[in-house]
Amino acid sequence: MDTAPISARLARVDDQLAALRRDHAAILAASEASNADDEHDPEGATIAWEREQVAALIARLEEDRAQLTAAAERARDGTYGRCERCGREIPAERLAVRPAARTCVGCG
C-alpha cells in the first residue's frame, strides 16, 4: 500500500502547526504586553477572539496529526487500507483524499 499520501499530509500538518504555534505565541506576547484586560479594552475582545481561534486551529491540526500517525502505524502493521468495520479494502481514491480513513465509504 502506498503510504506517500500519509507522509505528505503529515509534513503539511507539521508545517501548519509550526506556523500556528508561532502565531499563537505572538498573540500571547502582544496580549501580555498590553496593560488592559480583555473585558474593558476595545481591542481586548479581538485579541481574545484571535487567541481562541488560533488555539482551536492548533487543536484540530493536532487531532489530524494523531489520526495520520495512527494511519502510519496501521501501514507498518499491515492493516492500513482495510475497513475496520467490514474488513474490505478501502478504495485508493478514498485514501488519496483521506489518508487517515479507517472505514470504507459504506461503513463510514
Please tell me about this protein's structure.
By secondary structure, this protein is mainly α. The protein has one domain (4-81). It has 3 helices and no strands. The radius of gyration is 19 Å and the shape is elongated.
Average pLDDT number: 89
Count of distinct structural domains = 1
Strand content: under 5%
Q: Biggest sheet: strands, sense, closure?
A: none
Write down the Rg. Answer: 19 Å
Overall form? elongated
Note the main attributes of this structure.
108 residues, mainly alpha, 3 helices, 0% strand
Question: How would the blueprint of this fold be written?
Answer:
Blueprint: H1 4-33, H2 42-77, H3 92-97
Helix pairs in contact: 1-2
